[in-house]
Design a protein that fits this description.
Shape: globular
Strand order of the largest sheet: 7-4-1-9-8
Order of helices and strands: EHHEEHHHEEEHHEEEEHEEHEEEEHH
Number of strands: 16
Number of domains: 3
Structural class: alpha+beta
Radius of gyration: 24 Å
């Protein structure tokens, strides 16, 4: 598995991320062509090698005429949509980064993402940084992106709305659920653009994972910091372990005074909102009262949103948070042919091990109802076809298939696998 690790020892900004990716081997000319196709007049994009704190790094320079426009999200997405040299995947990634910024700014200013004005992030250099970073991340092709804990810096900074304490309000909103670390530097180390890149792209926050490093890139920040190199380091390589892992947030609350119907409705709301998994566990609470523990798994940056749903729907007085490391099978969607028709499901595997196939419940239930056969017969037919078809996962050694061994993984919820 191709892994990109972001070493944010002195924070992250859009130009630092872009410089580090170019330094790691991403083609600068392809990025320049994409930026030129935005159609912003008189913009010059260039790179140069600089020394920061004694270390060589790539610095990204964006030059343009002075501009005073305060853009809306729709203005920026129109620029991106009309760019001829940017792929659909790169456009989608850039738009998602800008949307993350718009959502944070709307929350801070009590507005909506349609009405909020971009100030600093709407400036030309920030547009170039975000679009360029989106192109670079896509070209790098990492299957998993991990970041170190993130420093924000100390002190105060002047923004369009006046002087405020670091992290700036928009940056702080974007960094909800992200593990932060204190670095004693009186400067803004993580910008809104850098925070938005982290929130949108990073799969988890942890120390350097087990991996074989292939390339290393250094992206230079603008400031010279006393006693340390102001650089973002990226390490690119392959996973040294077969299982895919990530970090998720586990939210838990104990309930003993909520009707079962309310709990069921809350679970549906959480799943509809995009939770990775939601489940309940019977528990015995104080005074021997029977209750349930409602648990939610979600991405760390989304924890606040799911806590709001829990507070609103259950009237709980408290929610426990914990970051947990999760090992997962690699997976992809697969369709098998059965005597009753095609059945969709998920193929899961670990390198060197026999893969498993989990039929989708909704597909099996629909077919069972249409054909008039028991649900279990559709399941068995799908599993049997998977074994007979000898489907081999990508980048995996040939698995061993055994017709008399089970391929169904009963530990996973078919509708919402973790």
């Amino acid at each position: 598995m191709r892994i990109l690790y972001l070493d944010c020892s002195t924070g992250i900004s859009g130009d630092m991320a872009l410089g580090a990716l170019i330094d790691a081997g991403v083609d600068a000319e392809t990025i320049r062509e994409g930026i030129d196709s935005l159609g912003i007049p008189e913009v010059t994009f260039s790179t140069e090698t600089v020394i920061k704190g004694g270390f060589r790094a790539t610095y990204v320079r964006v030059e343009h005429p002075e501009q005073h426009a305060h853009r809306h999200l729709s203005d920026i997405t129109a620029l991106i949509d009309n760019a001829s040299a940017i792929s659909p995947e790169q456009k989608d990634l850039a738009t998602r980064i800008f949307r993350a910024v718009a959502t944070a700014e709307a929350t801070v200013h009590g507005s909506t993402i349609e009405k909020v004005h971009f100030h600093e992030v709407g400036a030309i250099d920030s547009i170039v940084d975000i679009v360029g970073a989106a192109i670079a991340f896509d070209l790098l092709g990492a299957e998993r992106i991990i970041s170190s804990p993130v420093p924000t810096g100390r002190g105060q900074v002047k923004i369009a709305h006046g002087i405020c304490t670091l992290p700036a309000p928009g940056t702080a909103e974007l960094l909800k659920g992200v593990p932060l670390v204190d670095v004693p530097v009186e400067a803004e180390l993580t910008t809104p653009t850098g925070a938005a890149i982290l929130t949108t792209l990073v799969d988890g926050f942890a120390a350097l994972p087990e991996m074989t490093v292939e390339t290393i890139g250094y992206g230079a920040g603008t400031r010279d910091l006393p006693g340390r190199a102001n650089v973002l380091r990226v390490l690119v390589g392959t996973a040294a372990v077969s299982a895919k892992t990530d970090q998720v947030m586990l939210l838990e609350t104990n309930l003993d005074d909520v009707a079962p119907e309310i709990v069921a409705y809350a679970k549906k709301q959480l799943l509809d909102a995009g939770a990775l998994d939601v489940f309940t566990t019977p528990i015995q609470m104080k005074k021997n009262r029977s209750g349930v523990m409602l648990s939610v798994l979600c991405r760390p940056p989304e924890a606040e949103r799911f806590e709001t749903i829990l507070f609103n729907e259950t009237n709980t007085f408290g929610i426990r948070r914990s970051l947990v490391q999760r090992s997962k099978r690699l997976r992809r969607e697969e369709t098998v042919t059965t005597p009753f028709g095609p059945v969709k499901g998920k193929l899961g595997w670990r390198t060197g091990e026999r893969p498993c196939f989990v039929p989708e419940f909704d597909d099996c239930a629909r077919i069972a109802g249409e054909v008039g056969v028991p649900l279990r017969e559709v399941y068995r037919a799908a599993e049997a076809n998977f074994v007979e078809s000898r489907i081999v996962p990508p980048e995996s050694s040939p698995p061993t298939f055994a017709a008399d061994s089970p391929v169904h993984d009963h530990d996973h919820d078919h509708d919402h696998p973790v």
